[in-house]
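Human:
Take a look at this sequence-structure pair and walk me through the tokens.
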Amino acid sequence: MDSVELQGEQFRLVVSSISAETDDIVAIDLVDPAGDALPQRAAGAHIEIHLPGNLVRQYSLCNSPFESDRYKIAVLREANGRGGSLALHGLTEGETVVVSGPKNNFRLAGTEAVHHLLIAGGIGVTPLLSMVDELEARSAPFHLHFCAKDEGRAPFLNRIRALAERGVATIHFDGGEIGRGLDLAKLLEEPVPAQHVYVCGPPGMMDSARNLVGAWAPHTVHFERFAGGPIAMEEDEWEAVPFEIVAKKSGLVIPVPAHCSIVKALGDAGIEIPVSCEAGFCGACLTRYVDGNPVHRDTVLSGLERKTHALVCRARSRSPILVLDL
């Protein structure tokens, strides 16, 4: 992999092992080049891997949070993705990668939770496996529901089966037919006092779960999203409308063509914006605007935040000119 100049809290790790979990998912172990202990983290944490071309990708840590000698991630190869997964699938043992973190937006609840309900779809099981380790260390009650199309699409299946044999996990294979899989409605139809729910999986699962937990206390429901939500049709129509960005501090005027993100247009003009998900859900590209009327297409910002900031990986503009505080 091409070298990347280190900045801020970035550091280098070495690929110590690579193993196939499924035909399109690999597990990668990363260690310190000198064998030193890695920064501590709690279950649910992720790291960011910095790739050439100013790409940053987030991956949940799926090994025990009590292991300090390695970080384990799992990467799903996405042939139609933006290049991050293909680059990581091309790694070889002994190669060096640039990392930042760990960060955690998906923490386990504390003693206020009497039971933890973990719901995972496919590759979304990765942060929940780390949670299982922490919950077992706490002797805290939990149950994991794991969903996949079939055995060939199920990462870490041996470990999940071992949990199922102990009665703390249930495996759901749907064969590609949603009705044959986990019945989310039945599982989430009524809030359970002092039970916390953790959901990580594909967008369809996440959206269904969000629609079902309206009666649950907000602090008892936790989501980790791997992909951006769908864009409303009215918002999608703005994709074809070009506009201009004005960088306030430099006065630079930058055209943003149809079907081109603000981030890409800025990058082409020499203004680099940090990006990670590029789908409007991680917040890495948060940018203040001082004039104009952006079309917000993220799943993160509140109404108040949208009055001053935009996630420029996905935002467009209703006004012909959008002035950014850059």
